[in-house]
Amino acid sequence: MARVISVESERFPIAGTFTISRGSKTEAEVITVTIREDGQSGRGECVPYKRYDETIDGVRDAIGAMREQIQGGISRAALLDAMPAGAARNAVDCALWDLEAKITGKPVASSICMAPPRALETAYTVSLAEPEAMAAQARANALRPLLKVKIGGDNDMARIRAVREAAPASRIILDANEGWSDDNIVANLAFAAEHGIALIEQPLPAGRDGILRQIAHPLPICADESVHEAQGLASLVGLYDAVNIKLDKSGGLTAALVLRDRARELGFGIMVGCMVGTSLAMAPAVLLAQDADFVDLDGPLLLARDRAPGLVYQGSLVSPPDPALWG
To answer: Which has the closest alpha carbon to 83: 29, 12, 33?
Structure first.
């Protein structure tokens, strides 16, 4: 039976407001791709991201332009050449992985994981706000072992201090989302190190981060917006100490596996992260993250409503996906 693809736009409300240095949002807008063949269905989810000039309509159009090739049986390997990295390719690639697992009865984990997948400790995000409000968020989640704190404003030292005092036992990742500058990065890094921060993510704008090669790294610095695919990794050596791999940036699990392996070869630490999406978007990333140094897959925890069935979260532990969800 020939493959049939369908594409659906969906919205999932966020519990409250999710705020980073570039703005706020109150819902997750996602695209779900379903590919059917031989009575089985495979699904993949992506989150179009404005920072990378992606829109819901643009991603739908990009997938639609591939309809004939997808329904004609394109392989995941061929998909890497046929589509650019980004959200559209991610949704198709993950749907193909899921479809293959459903048809063959062979779980994706058995193909990509060195050992049976286990539950992972994920970061939990504290949204950007004034220091007192961020302290309240951190205090409410102070028992979580890992927090990811959004910063990138004019008052970040006060934010760092407030969050650290509110969650003294938690490891903390700071995510500046390109919000710092050459003028404040040295002082901000030193202040973060003094307050026991574990990692700082993308402090400077992508492409304007050359100073990172010249200054001290008192704590590890992780690339996010500066890294998408494996091809660009070598240029980041000496700038960054770790890379944040997101399926929506790499363009799917297939490319993300290549990126992870190349990053390890070059000596980078690995974070596996996410956009704000549902459990369907997180599921393949949980398998990718089995040997990651940092895991940031809390998207469903930020939503007022997730898919059913979804991933199982117990506190900050996220379990591998059940085949009914994905893989």
So the answer is: 33
User: What three-state secondary structure class fits 261?
Assistant: helix
pTM (2 d.p.)? 0.96
Distance between CA atoms of residues 126 and 148, nearest Å:
6
Instruction: Describe the strand order of the beta sheet including 317-318 as a list of residue ranges.
Output: 120-121, 317-318, 313-314
Annotated catalytic sites, by residue?
150, 246
248-286 pLDDT, tens digit each = 999 999 999 999 999 999 999 999 999 999 999 999 999
Residues 155 and 289 occupy one common structural domain? yes
Yes or no: say if 217 and 191 are a contact pair by the CB < 8 Å rule: no
Q: Which of 49, 83, 111 is the last residue of a domain?
A: 111
**Rounded average pLDDT over 209-234:** 97
Question: What is the C-alpha separation between 111 and 114, in angstroms, rounded?
Answer: 8
Alpha-carbon separation of residue 171 from 81, 145, 263, 314, 323 (angstroms):
39, 6, 23, 18, 32
The CATH number linked to 82 is 3.30.390.10
Q: Average pLDDT, whole number, for the chain?
A: 96
What's the number of domains the chain is made of? 2
Place of tokens 């309240």: 136
CA distance 55 to 36: 25
Q: Which two tokens stand for residue 241?
A: 């100490």
Closest residue by Cα to residue 253 from 118, 121, 77: 77
- pLDDT above 70 covers a percentage of the chain that reads 100
